[in-house]
Specification:
94% helix; transmembrane; 1 helix; membrane; 36 residues; 0% strand; mainly alpha; transmembrane helix
Length: 36
């Protein structure tokens, strides 16, 4: 039971990090598009 909780927590953490990087990437692209 404990091990499953850890696995789920790691999965959620990885997905959250991926979402955050995609979000920051899109913001950076949006800023570059506006400046040019």
């Amino acid at each position: 039971m404990q091990r499953k909780m850890v696995c789920v927590a790691i999965e959620v953490f990885i997905v959250h990090c991926l979402e955050l990087s995609v979000w920051l990437f899109l913001i950076a692209v949006d800023k570059q598009a506006k400046t040019t």
